Amino acid sequence: DKEVRAIFLRLFAQLFQGYRSCLQLIRIHAEPVIHFHKAAFLGQRGLIENDFLTKVLNGMAFAGFVSERGPPFRTCDLFDELVAFEVERIKAEEGNPPKMIKHVRELAEQLFKNENPNPHIAFQKVPRPTEGSHLRVHILPFPRINEGRVQELLQEGLARSQGAPPATRGDKKCVVPAGPPVGTFLWF
Predict the structure, then answer these.
(1) Boundaries of every domain in the chain
(2) Any idea where the UDENN domain is (predicted)?
């Protein structure tokens, strides 16, 4: 699963390489608007007549991509690193399948590490009930919950969480690297 995702990650990094150089931040409104200059993107790549890429850029998914990834200051991820720093590597691997597969596996490993940051935490499996366990008579009924005690525990937890420093994830916002401009690579 992660290797398939890594392949698509590489594909979209190649497809949208240099997109940041075609973003325009318009600050006329109270909330800045990010506009993607499609004609410049297609023109610099020499793909103005390419129906596929034109349809991709006109789609709602790409509009969401631009609004989510357009801001110059946000949390960066693996895709941003690929687009900004791995241009030459991806291009060099085009004619060398073993290197390409190695890179895909590296990306898949990074995706796995991103989704499982604490590999040392082991999940204990719940054992299956033994055969005929549902027929036992000695099983006690589930106890009733004391609503007053539940409220007390909730209040204690809220009091503790208000006094504790806010939990922060490792994601820190940074200036998104622009990467090379669109005109520096030739496609297809």
Answers:
(1) 1-117
(2) 1-76
